[in-house]
UniProtKB/TrEMBL annotation:
Protein name: TetR family transcriptional regulator
Matches recorded under SUPFAM superfamilies: Homeodomain-like
Claim: Transmembrane helix is one of the keywords in the record: no
Organism of provenance: Deinococcus seoulensis
Gene3D superfamilies given in the database record: Tetracycline Repressor, domain 2
Pfam family, one: TetR_N
Keyword terms: DNA-binding, Transcription, Transcription regulation
Superkingdom as given in the UniProt entry: Bacteria
Disordered: annotated span: 1-20
Domain HTH tetR-type, chain residue ranges per copy: 21-81
Origin organism lineage: Bacteria, Thermotogati, Deinococcota, Deinococci, Deinococcales
InterPro entries assigned: Homeodomain-like_sf, HTH-type_TetR-like_transc_reg, HTH_TetR, TetR_C_44
DNA-binding positions: 44-63
Length: 235
């Protein structure tokens, strides 16, 4: 072992940080697969440790609780959606079409894993991104990962709204960060309390909330009709 934390195995240099990152991801993935089948409460730390091929001691070294594991996996999915949206916007895609794709994917996940939405929603809503900037503060009893996930969700929405603003559809003085946070909170509340049956129900509810929140941010001469779209036909 060297002072830099590198390991040598069979003459091959292995970075300790890479090993830790791989183990952390394996734990989060194994935990989510168990949660998806049986729910958060039915799965024990020992179940996760066995599925991830680590000891319970190592399990808690990487994640202090099951909700931290769930948020880690969820955040990875959100980041993938953000990367895809950003890439599509850079390629010149219509912001509204990008928005449709992002919300359709998140609505699908919300319905498919509705038994996990409560845990994620409570952690995210309990950590207000608005109050967190520029110096994040952890709300009592809320995992720090809840704050990070909340900020990741808002960051997923920001590029799309910014593209709409650059097109002149939103007021130039509109606070895109604040609007992103409000939309994320509204959409999570819809998942928690909407009683949706399927993805179409989620998207219909989200469309209503989107229209309401966006109304005050519209540029002069722009109507909600200009931002209208039929989310129900989104694949």
């Amino acid at each position: 072992m060297t002072g830099s934390g590198a390991l040598y195995s069979g003459g091959v240099k292995v970075d300790r940080q890479e090993q830790d990152d791989a183990r952390r991801e394996r734990i989060a993935r194994a935990a989510f697969e168990l949660f998806a089948r049986s729910g958060l409460d039915a799965i024990s730390a020992q179940d996760i440790a066995q599925a991830a091929f680590v000891s319970r001691t190592n399990l808690y070294r990487y994640y202090p609780s099951k909700i931290h594991m769930l948020l880690a996996h969820f955040e990875k999915a959100v980041q993938a959606s953000r990367d895809d949206a950003t890439e599509r916007l850079r390629a010149g895609a219509n912001p509204q079409q990008v928005w449709d794709k992002v919300t359709a994917r998140m609505a699908d996940l919300g319905v498919r894993y509705r038994h996990l939405v409560g845990a994620v929603g409570q952690a995210v809503l309990g950590a207000s991104p608005i109050e967190a900037r520029p110096a994040p503060q952890r709300a009592p009893g809320v995992p720090g990962d809840g704050m990070r996930t909340a900020l990741t969700l808002a960051a997923m929405v920001e590029p799309v709204l910014l593209a709409m603003q650059n097109q002149g559809r939103l007021r130039p003085e509109a606070n895109i960060n604040m609007l992103s946070v409000l939309l994320v909170d509204a959409f999570i509340l819809a998942l928690l309390h909407g009683g949706h049956r399927d993805q179409r129900d989620v998207l219909r509810d989200w469309q209503d909330r989107f229209s309401l929140l966006m109304h005050g941010a519209l540029a002069p001469g722009t109507s909600l009709r200009d931002l209208s779209h039929d989310k129900l036909d989104t694949p």
